[in-house]
């Protein structure tokens, strides 16, 4: 499909026409709060998309500039009274731009290495994680703060790394249920999640086991394809989607993931691939908090003392519309006091690779989030997404807060350990 075909497709045009220009999306948009310009809010970006669709402006220039600045957090969809499918429109426009744009040789090389050689290969990512941990242990990564301004993105990437990278990887295989067997589920380990936050995956498996589920970590699974799709590499995203659908073809009660961004992409496979196998796959995908909120057969009985605030993953809240389940799980842990943020619907600035590509804007958005976190005086900052976790770790260090960043399942795992139920 050509760029013009995408922008003139009836579904795309009809989606644009749903906007009634009411402006309710402006206060919900993080980049509008940073730039204070109409073109950096959903309404303005939709106007640019409409102009490009009608041939009044080129794909390069203003359209690309302002779409590049968009986080894709989809908070605008939640508040839109007309149901504008902003996320789908944004992805279509970005795909059209990429089809018309000429990439430099250096960019083609970086994309090949990241999107095709690294992210789809969990085994390679594990090796990178081990190497990175070694560099951390001998202090070489600490030197990154002295890199010159020309290497700002690399310096920011290093700043986003967790202080200690876990190598407690979750190998393919079957992890038996503990206690009464309730069923069997498959677990999607992810790519960056498994490389940088392997301890979260391990905690996820343990919590599912303790609630009576046999957990299958299936071989052959790969990256969800979200990063490739969001940067306009549709071919790679579709290839990864097909590989995952084939890998998870067994009989499972659910396909569990623990990253909001990955889950949103996995649930989109039905639309992306458009076949019965993809639809059946997508129908079984559940976020771990979504699943456990309905299947917490063994609620933790021992307390975890502390004050927790929950930072929503944008793609869990706005794309998957999973809002209450993580909060219900946190409320089920004795000893924890849950304190809400004043703006739980606002992005933290991570947005996939946005905080690497646009570090200054991401930092401004992060600072607004951390100011909100600081006023809760939380000892735990809980979230449900890989990028959010890493961004919040960076934010806690940047703001020198006395708080620990955790995934919701980590707190559940801690509560079970307090009961003396370590595997």
| CATH-derived architecture of one domain | 3-Layer(aba) Sandwich
Form type: globular
Amount of beta strand? 5-15%
| Major sheet | 5 strands, mixed
Radius of gyration: 21 Å
Any low-confidence stretches, pLDDT <50, length ≥5? none
Q: Total helix count?
A: 24
Helix content: 40-55%
Question: Structural class of the helices, strands and pairings?
Answer: alpha/beta
* CATH fold node name of one domain: Rossmann fold
Tell me the name of the CATH class of one domain: Alpha Beta
Q: Going across the biggest sheet, name each strand in turn.
A: 1-3-2-4-5
Q: Would you tell me the overall average pLDDT? A: 93
Described by its quaternary structure, the protein is single chain
Q: Total strand count, please?
A: 9
* Distance separating the two termini: 52 Å
Features:
alpha/beta; Fumarate Reductase Iron-sulfur Protein, Chain B, domain 2; 423 residues; single chain; globular; four-stranded parallel beta sheet
Description:
The chain is α/β, with parallel strands linked by helices. Among the domains are: 3-100, Alpha-helical ferredoxin (Fumarate Reductase Iron-sulfur Protein, Chain B, domain 2, Orthogonal Bundle), CATH 1.10.1060.10; 299-418, 3-Layer(aba) Sandwich (Rossmann fold). Helix content is 53%, strand content 8%. It has helices spanning 3-8, 10-17, 30-35, 42-53, 62-68, 75-79, 86-100, 105-118, 122-137, 152-159, 192-196, 198-210, 226-230, 234-247, 260-267, 269-273, 276-284, 288-295, 314-319, 324-331, 354-357, 359-376, 386-399, 408-418; strands at residues 173-175, 183-187, 213-217, 255-257, 285-287, 306-310, 336-338, 380-383, 404-407. The strands form two sheets. The protein has a five-stranded mixed sheet with strand order 1-3-2-4-5. Helix 4 runs antiparallel to helix 5, helix 12 (198-210) crosses helix 24 and helix 22 packs across helix 23 (386-399). The longest helix is centred in the last third of the chain and has 18 residues, at 359-376. The mean pLDDT is 93.
